[in-house]
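Run log // design_07
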């Protein structure tokens, strides 16, 4: 694909995430003293920060942030990252918690959902990255249909790990450039990526499995990448760093294997250089 430049718009929500390690999701041993990790997210924030630090002009469109959220973000906001809140509300920092097992299984404890009353402004967005979390799914799909992707705008959607095929089908008439999702079910990663691509009618689809690697499906075939470390880690924020690598490689005109390799490199750099997954 040809290299392209221009504005990247990243759309999603913001919260301060606390990650609590647990042995398993049955919560056996819950209440014991554990070392938690705190990270300013969600994925859209990390993706926008990563892209802007690579010199890419970015607009981070945040849905229903609080005034305290925006104040906290200003402390870590790169110069090339422009923040555009949609329907700001008063209040403290939005907080969420995730319970994470050593194998990467997660259970999220989320704040009550709040749907924006204002429309999205996607003017000038040549590339659009969207976090399609359950709590903002209806609003975003409605807004995306009002701003459909075309020859001048390419849509990349993080479906998260919740109901990815259902969400993909809801996007099919928009024909996204790329959809991605975490894969935790039966079947191989390449099969999961192919199923996502078929459901979304997208040019590309990526299925990830944390330390187990990722697969990409396209019209020309399937591609696979494996962990870059002999001791792969599970750490909060790596999935968002993977997404940032995908977007950055797409902007640079990478081929299918190049997209995956760049995303894997970005996630590996996060694991080795920064503290702190994505949904």
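design_07 sequence
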């Amino acid at each position: 694909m040809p290299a392209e430049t221009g504005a990247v718009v990243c759309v999603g929500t913001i919260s301060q995430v606390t990650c609590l390690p647990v042995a398993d999701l049955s919560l056996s041993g819950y209440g014991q003293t554990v070392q938690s990790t705190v990270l300013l997210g969600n994925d859209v924030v990390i993706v926008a920060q990563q892209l802007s630090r690579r010199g890419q002009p970015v607009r981070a469109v945040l849905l229903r942030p609080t005034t305290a959220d925006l104040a906290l973000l200003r402390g870590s906001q790169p110069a090339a990252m422009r923040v555009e809140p949609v329907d700001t509300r008063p209040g403290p920092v939005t907080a969420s918690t995730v319970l994470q097992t050593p194998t990467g299984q997660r259970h999220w404890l989320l704040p009550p959902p709040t749907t924006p009353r204002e429309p999205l402004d996607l003017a000038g967005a040549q590339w659009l990255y969207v976090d399609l979390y359950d709590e903002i799914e209806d609003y975003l799909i409605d807004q995306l249909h009002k701003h459909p992707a075309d020859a001048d705008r390419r849509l990349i959607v993080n479906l998260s790990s919740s109901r990815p095929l259902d969400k993909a089908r809801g996007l099919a008439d928009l024909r996204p450039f790329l959809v991605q999702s975490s894969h935790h079910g039966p079947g191989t990663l390449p099969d999961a990526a192919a199923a996502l691509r078929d459901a979304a009618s997208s040019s590309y689809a990526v299925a990830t499995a944390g330390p187990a690697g990722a697969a990409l499906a396209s019209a020309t075939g399937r591609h696979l990448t494996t962990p870059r470390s002999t001791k792969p880690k599970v750490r909060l924020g790596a999935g968002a760093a993977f997404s940032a690598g995908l977007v950055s490689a797409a902007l640079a005109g990478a081929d299918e294997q190049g997209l995956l390799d760049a995303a894997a490199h970005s996630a590996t750099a996060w694991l080795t250089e920064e503290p702190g997954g994505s949904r």
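Residues 1-5, 274-278 have pLDDT under 50 and may be disordered.
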